[in-house]
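dumping the sequnces here before i forget
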Amino acid sequence: MLTDTYKRPLRDLRISVTDRCNFRCTYCMPLDEYDWIDKREILSFEEIARVARIFVRAGVEKLRLTGGEPLVRTNVERLVAELAPIEGLKELCLTTNGSLLAEKAAALKAGGLKRINVSIDTLDAEKFRRMTKRGDLGKVLEGLFAAKNAGLDPIKINAVIERGVNDGDILDLVAFAREHGFTMRFIEYMDVGNANGWTSTKLVPKKEIVEIIHRRFPLKEVGRSQGSAPAVDYEFADGGGRVGVVASVTEPFCSTCNRARLTADGKLVTCLFSSAGHDLKTRIRSGASDDELFDFIAGIWRSRTDRYSAERLEAMRSSNYDPKTHKKIEMITLGG
Ligand code: SAM
Ligand code: SF4
Ligand code: SF4
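..and the predicted 3d for all of it:
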């Protein structure tokens, strides 16, 4: 089995299909303009599918399409249809802001997608507009219910919680998800990228999120799915489903991190907080064989030493963590 220097296997690949997005969430991509990747540098669906098959050969069981906003990539359902049948693949997922989901849900389902994550940080339309800078909550909810009607299941709702912004919206989101059969996943606000001006004062720790929910909807901890999932899951004591919390900052899970990322322009990135990736695209476009690409990927994974969130927590505890000193790849390029 292929493992890295901490004996972590390679099991999960997040594929960014575009760095572009029609939202400008303040915690992710707050600037109006970025140095967008030139269209010619973006991997084609055929290139992505080829690389995905090689990753599955190397041990990957789960693929997640992300971005940027994956649904702004034209005909992304065609890519879904190419990836879904890959032999050995156990799960194919997609994370979206939901804005184009009403038009796309049925085609994604028909292409072989089974499950989906939709990001919704608040159910207050005006706050939603402020947080995403461009988003229309009504359109996103329409997409969410279109996904449900198309039979996508499970449907998870991702919400990043930022202190003083939407920490008062946690219970509304939980009640909404329980009522409609969705699963809420709260995400601690992270210092991804370089532009969101993250400080630890904006962070609402997992412990506090869980306490807020537990007071209103008593919870029982279930743990991490397969022992390695980013989210810690909780069950509602009344049988009303589950809720998960991703605590990348306060309870890092680097010791079990089995995730790699493929950027839209074909770079392999081994950590969400990496400052650079490894160029697969040039190798693909200069005629490398599948075996050569496999060896390249395997070599990178074998030498992987990443444990950024664990190191950040150690630094935060000794009060010498400054997010600005570490230049990272923007999340939109990486795929969150
Ligand atoms: N555009 C899609 C979306 O918003 O779902 C997919 C890409 S987005 C980068 C993937 C996930 O990362 C979203 O759920 C988003 O909320 C989350 N995210 C973005 N910036 C974050 C941050 N600073 N801290 C924690 N999560 C973040
Ligand atoms: Fe776009 Fe998703 Fe980032 Fe929001 S979180 S700016 S929707 S990529
Ligand atoms: Fe994995 Fe890097 Fe996140 Fe740690 S910080 S869990 S190594 S992606």
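The first helix runs from residue 45 to 57.
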